[in-house]
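Support request, priority: normal
Reporter: lab tech (M.K.)
Component: structure prediction queue

Hi team, I submitted a job for DUF3037 domain-containing protein from Nocardioides abyssi yesterday, and the status page still shows it as pending. I've pasted the exact input below so you can check whether something in the sequence is tripping the parser. The sequence length should be 126 residues. Please let me know if I need to resubmit or if it's stuck on your end.
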Amino acid sequence: MTRLAYQYVVLRCVPRVDREEFLNVGVVVYCQAQDFLQVAWDVDADRLRALDARIDVDQVRDALRFVEGVCAGDERGGAAGAHPIGQRFGFLKAPKSTVIQPGPVHGGVTTDPARQLEHLLDCLVG
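Reply from support: The job had stalled in the queue. We restarted it manually and it finished. Here are the results:
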């Protein structure tokens, strides 16, 4: 089995930046060796509303669908989706002041990036 290096960021929903509270809602995994860039996400509306009762959960889901488009390199990702895969990951891992923010970049090795993504989603979001 070939061990492949990968990087990942956890996507955080930050309903109110002034309170510095967040909820992990997704994970983006990038494996350069396999041209792999995917996101997996799960939005728990009740937990988000516990942080801010006024949060627009549909807007959070729309933002995560945008991330899907960037990863896929399709029209859902707008102009960012048109760039090479490494630049798309760079765009997704860059700090933002929006409701969806990436955490720090982490790395590891795996034999199966897709399975690693599901594992990270279960451990860090679910």
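The two ends are 28 Å apart (CA to CA). DSSP finds four helices and five strands in the chain. Let us know if anything else looks off. Ticket resolved.
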